[in-house]
Amino acid sequence: MAVPKPAIRWVGASANNYTKGRTARIDRITFHHIVGTGASCEATFNNPSRGASATYSVGEDGLIRQHISEKDTPWSDGNWESNQRTISIEHAGGHPNVPYTSAMYKSAGKLHAWIIDRYGMTYFPKHREVSRSPTVCSGGLDRERILADARAIIKANNTVPQPPPPPNTPSTRYVRHTVPKEYVFNKNANLWNLTTTTWAGFKAVKPFKLGEHIDIVGEARHQLGGIYYMTAYSFGDADKTGKPKANNGVNAKDLNIWVAPVEPPVEPPVEPPIEPPVEPPVEPPVEPPVEPPIEPEPEYPNWFIRFWKELIATIERMLGINK
Ligand SMILES: [Zn+2]
User: Fold this and answer.
1) Is residue 19 a contact partner of residue 72, using CB atoms and an 8 Å limit?
2) Ligand 1: centre distance to CA 316 (Å)
3) How far is the CA of 5 from the centre of ligand 1 (A)?
4) What is the pLDDT of residues 105-124, one digit of tens each?
5) Which stretch of 83-92, 195-204, 230-239 has the lowest confidence by average pLDDT?
6) 198 C-alpha to center of ligand 1: Å?
7) What is the whole-number distance in angstroms between the Cα of residue 55 and the centre of ligand 1?
């Protein structure tokens, strides 16, 4: 939405006071003050002997007057090069009896906003900043206040150029597989460049033959819907950065997980039984000879000893043995 055109009264100017047409691109607005009222400005620029003009003026009552077309060159800046490039605007005030009024500032903001919005200029000199002859114009006019108001109006109208919204298309996502795996092609197929937004845009990068192997670390879930498996070289850190090192992948349908063929079980060679080492026979421990217990001398009762002593003594006596 563009800034709306404020109410403007066309009042014209004497054909003696400006140049028809332009010879340069408009790139600025020059700020002037009238040192008087809007009506006095209208009168001055219609005076054929005045030799001066501006494109617009803003009266103390807020009335915006247009004196010449934007397509014509005002005689305003005391500098022909600047005249050729400017839209000059007079503002009522700067006179002891004509202050810069809030009505003037309010209208000025709207007028500047409407012009800046259409031309996009960024240069806003005061007359005295470009004039080649001495002048105090634009006096005490508050240029920054007017520009701030104008910018606020432009912003409120959302006319600040915005970058075009991104096309409403889903983007390709890159997903790293949990575990890298070895795959084998189940047909003759291609490695495809995935930088395309149309099916016709897929470009073959490299052919693969049925039975060839490829190590896969991740996949591109293409914005068009297909899933393409990617090698570590192509994938890079695409899961983190969104940008693969090389945007190439193989259609997942062209690959099978490689499963090593099951080899017949190799029977283990019959190993000779390991004979247990021949252990030396356990020799029975040499038992020490059992010594017969020394039998204590039998003790005989006293009566028995006496009996035998007396018997022996009797026999000795009977045999005549003397001791
Ligand atoms: Zn001026």
Assistant:
1) yes
2) 189
3) 24
4) 999 999 999 999 999 999 99
5) 195-204
6) 60
7) 12
